[in-house]
Every structure is written in structure tokens, then in C-alpha cells.
């Protein structure tokens, strides 16, 4: 679906496609498909409602659960199971008020499993959960007498017992529970990282805006300072000209300050002019 496309239009297009698929099944000459169509036509309404409730109650982060599939099923089983569920919960066939929502859920699940990147990411987490379940089983069965006896009786040894356990419903149920924990933890980390990135991006935007405001303020201040330069120079010149005074020697004292008066020598004076307080200092002989 295009990112800019209205979800309602996309859902309607998907619904029309499913109706065409149903019509193709009805028009086909394949006896098995005709029998399948007749089976779903005669299906009880309670079964359809149960399927809707199962789909809507499935773990939302795992498309396999939404379609009711084992996690290790072959690729061709995905399309087959989708066709089966879609015929059961089709809004035109099912009277459940949330049949349309369930129909859209399995459609999105099929789309995710057909997307190579999304499927690869999902399978990575599912395999990680599978290894955790197997490691727990191996640790628990190391000292289990029943497992040792079964390994001795099996031609494949303990590997054969492990393969039988992997194929059992008990293993898949444990795998399902572990996968929910792994996927939920991954989703929580993804949302936390997304939130942190959004906060960092917002903070960077605010810092950039503040830098722009500060740069603009400095430019305006420099421009204003440059405009008043002539006024400042003229005011300083007026101040110098108005306060300037001439000293006795004919020089102009800057700012009206008079230079110190030069001392005149007097040969008739028999004393030495001293600084203030110097008269109290005894003369050296």
C-alpha cells in the first residue's frame, strides 16, 4: 500500500481482491477447491465468530499467530492458511460485528510475511526464542531419567529425542510463549529508541533555532553599532574641542588638563625643597 493512500481505500481494494479470489474458487473445476468452498459455505456461524475472536485476540507482534500457523511452517502454508481464514471471516460471509477488523488483521499479517525484510527480522527473533527454549530443555533434561531412557531406546539417540520434542505441540507452545517475551522486549526497545531519537532531534532543532536567534541578534547589534559610529566620532571631537585649554607654555592640554608646573631654580635659596613629610626625616651627615 502506498504511504499516502487512504487506509479505507486500500482496505476496500483488498476486500474486492478477496471477493475475486472467492469467485475464482467457486468457478473452478477443481473438485477439492469446490469441496472446500462448500465446506466454508456450510460452516456454522459460531465457528466463524470463534475465528474472528481468535484473530483479534492473537499476539499482535507475530503474524504467524494471527494466521494460526506454526512458526516453522513452509512458505506455501502461509497463503493456504490465509485463504482458509479469509473465507471464514469475510465480512460478506460472517455476521460478527468485527469481522471486517479480523479480515484486515490477517491481510496485514500476510503482507508482513511476504515482505522479505520484515520476515527476516521476525524469523531472527523467533529463532532466538527457539534457541532459548531448546537450551532450557537441554539443561532440564540433562539429569532426567526419562530422557536418558528415551535416548537409549531411540536409534538416533538424544538427537532423535530432541527432534521429537521440537515437533511436539508442547515445544511449540513453549516457543510461542518465549517468542512473545522476545518480541515484546524488542518492541519496547524499539519504541524507547524511537522516543529517544525524537527527543534528541527536537533538542537539536531547538539548539539550532537558538543559535540562529543569537547570530541574528549579534548581526543586528553589529549593524546598529556601525550606524552610530559617525555620531560617536563626532561627539568625541566636540568634547575635545569644547574642553581643550591652552597651558602657559602655549600647548593645549587634552581634555582641559594642565601639565604640572616646571620648577625654577633659585641660587639664593639655601634650603632644599622636599616632598610633604620629608622635613621630618633627619639629614644624613
Would you write up a description of this structure?
- This is J domain-containing protein.
- Residues 199-232 have a biased composition (Basic and acidic residues).
- Residues 62-126 form the J domain.
- Residues 1-28, 199-269 are annotated as: Disordered.
- InterPro entries: DnaJ_domain, J_dom_sf.
- A two-stranded antiparallel sheet has the order 1-2.
- With 285 residues, the protein is mostly helical.
- Helix 5 (75-89) packs antiparallel against helix 6 (99-114) and helix 8 crosses helix 9 (157-166).
- The radius of gyration is 46 Å and the shape is elongated.
- The chain is built from eleven helices and two strands.
- It has helices spanning 7-27, 31-41, 45-57, 63-67, 75-89, 99-114, 116-141, 145-153, 157-166, 169-227, 229-243; strands at 245-246, 252-253.
- The N and C termini lie far apart (115 Å).
- A hairpin with a 5-residue loop joins strand 1 (245-246) and strand 2 (252-253).
Amino acid at each position: 500500500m502506498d504511504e499516502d493512500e487512504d487506509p479505507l481505500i486500500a482496505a476496500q481494494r483488498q476486500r474486492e481482491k478477496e471477493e475475486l479470489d472467492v469467485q475464482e474458487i467457486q468457478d473452478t473445476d477443481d473438485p477439492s477447491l469446490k469441496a472446500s468452498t462448500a465446506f466454508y459455505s456450510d460452516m456454522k456461524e459460531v465457528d466463524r465468530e470463534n475465528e474472528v475472536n481468535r484473530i483479534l485476540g492473537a499476539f499482535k507482534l507475530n503474524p504467524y499467530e494471527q494466521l494460526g500457523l506454526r512458526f516453522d511452517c513452509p512458505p506455501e502454508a502461509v497463503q493456504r492458511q490465509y485463504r482458509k481464514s479469509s473465507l471464514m471471516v469475510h465480512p460478506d460471509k460472517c455476521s460478527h460485528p468485527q469481522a471486517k477488523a479480523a479480515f484486515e488483521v490477517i491481510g496485514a499479517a500476510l503482507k508482513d510475511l511476504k515482505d522479505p525484510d520484515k520476515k527476516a527480522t521476525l524469523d531472527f527473533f523467533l529463532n532466538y526464542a527457539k534457541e532459548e527454549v531448546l537450551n532450557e530443555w537441554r539443561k532440564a533434561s540433562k539429569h532426567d531419567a526419562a530422557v536418558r531412557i528415551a535416548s537409549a531406546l531411540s536409534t538416533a539417540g538424544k538427537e532423535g529425542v530432541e527432534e521429537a520434542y521440537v515437533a511436539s505441540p508442547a515445544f511449540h507452545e513453549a516457543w510461542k510463549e518465549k517468542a512473545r517475551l522476545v518480541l515484546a522486549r524488542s518492541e519496547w526497545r524499539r519504541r524507547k529508541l524511537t522516543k529517544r531519537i525524537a527527543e534528541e532531534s527536537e533538542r537539536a532543532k531547538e539548539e539550532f533555532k537558538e543559535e540562529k536567534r543569537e547570530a541574528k541578534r549579534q548581526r543586528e547589534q553589529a549593524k546598529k553599532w556601525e550606524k552610530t559610529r559617525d555620531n560617536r566620532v563626532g561627539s568625541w571631537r566636540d568634547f575635545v574641542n569644547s574642553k581643550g585649554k591652552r597651558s602657559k607654555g602655549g600647548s593645549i592640554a587634552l581634555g582641559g588638563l594642565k601639565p604640572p608646573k616646571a620648577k625654577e631654580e633659585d641660587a639664593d635659596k639655601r634650603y632644599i625643597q622636599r616632598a610633604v613629610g620629608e622635613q621630618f626625616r633627619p639629614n644624613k651627615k
